[in-house]
Design a protein that fits this description.
alpha/beta; Rossmann fold; globular; binds adenosine-5'-diphosphate; binds magnesium ion; transport
């Protein structure tokens, strides 16, 4: 396939290892939806360059956690900092935060009436005030990196789901985010397209991108995660290296979860 994602050896060799310095820090975060206590005393620290995979049954609060980190949701108590800065409430500081924290959802949310290239250049031109030529050059580089540069002049509906999700990743990367959040990025894809998206994500992980990934793809968790965070009922029940989590889950909820999916 000429259209496959790839990561060049030179890119991979510039890998920055995790420095241990915290980039995303949640301390005692609590959130309710009405009576539902959806995030309970969440403490999570993600180091620069670290890849954290969040696992847990449906309804455990994984999406809410991602949305709270990107301030798409508010929270009632506790604190969240990105690169040492508390999450801003609103205004230009919030727009800046959103561009520092890339997010890729299950649904690709590309602008249907814009070309693939325009989808990727829009954010940098509007938010970062990058000029068109520069934004386009960078967009083509990113589209190449995720393996869809041939599709630059097409519209989203002309692409497969896997290609659209790779464009969505390129679009996030165009903002030069400090951290990327992925919320079940392959759940809406036909099975044969899942790996082309996971391969792009694994490449990013290898290059040192800080990532928080909600997924049901256990193979990806095993190969790409530095740490697995297991959530149930709004709580983090376990945080471990993948091999420890998969071979030696401690909580009953985690054992139950693994028995159903493995
Ligand atoms: P997960 O992503 O782990 O499946 P979610 O974060 O989507 O879990 O949801 C956690 C809980 O919060 C679920 O019980 C869900 O029904 C509820 N919930 C999510 N979003 C909202 C909302 N906007 N309003 C009310 N309840 C919500
Ligand atoms: Mg979810």
């Amino acid at each position: 396939m000429t259209d496959a994602p790839r990561v060049s050896e030179t890119e991979a060799s510039t890998t920055q290892a995790s420095t241990g310095e915290p980039l995303v820090v949640l301390s005692d975060v609590n959130k309710h939806f009405g009576d539902l206590h959806v995030l309970r005393d969440i403490n999570l620290s993600v180091a620069r360059g670290e890849v954290v995979v969040v696992l847990g049954p449906s309804g455990s609060g994984k999406s809410t956690l991602c949305r709270t980190i990107n301030r798409l949701e508010t929270f009632e108590s506790g604190s969240i900092t990105i690169d040492g800065q508390p999450l801003p409430e609103e205004g230009p500081a919030l727009a800046r935060l959103r561009s520092d924290v890339g997010m890729v959802f299950q649904s690709f949310n590309l602008f249907a009436h814009k070309t693939i290239l325009q989808n990727v250049t829009l954010g940098p031109m509007k938010v970062r005030k990058t000029n068109k030529a520069e934004a386009e050059a960078r967009a083509m580089e990113l589209l190449k990196r995720v393996g869809v540069e041939q599709q630059a002049q097409k519209y989203p509906a002309q692409l497969s789901g896997g290609q659209q999700q790779r464009v969505a990743i390129a679009r996030s990367l165009a903002m030069n985010p400090k951290v990327m959040l992925f919320d079940e990025p392959t759940s809406a894809l036909d099975p044969e397209m899942i790996n082309e998206v996971l391969d792009v994500m694994a490449g990013l992980a290898k290059e040192g991108m800080t990532m928080i990934v909600v997924t049901h793809e256990m193979g990806f968790a095993r190969r790409a995660a530095d740490r697995v965070v297991f959530m149930a009922d709004g709580q983090i029940l376990e945080q471990k290296k993948p091999e420890d989590f998969f071979t030696n889950p401690e909580s009953d909820r985690a054992k139950d979860f693994l028995s159903k999916i493995l």
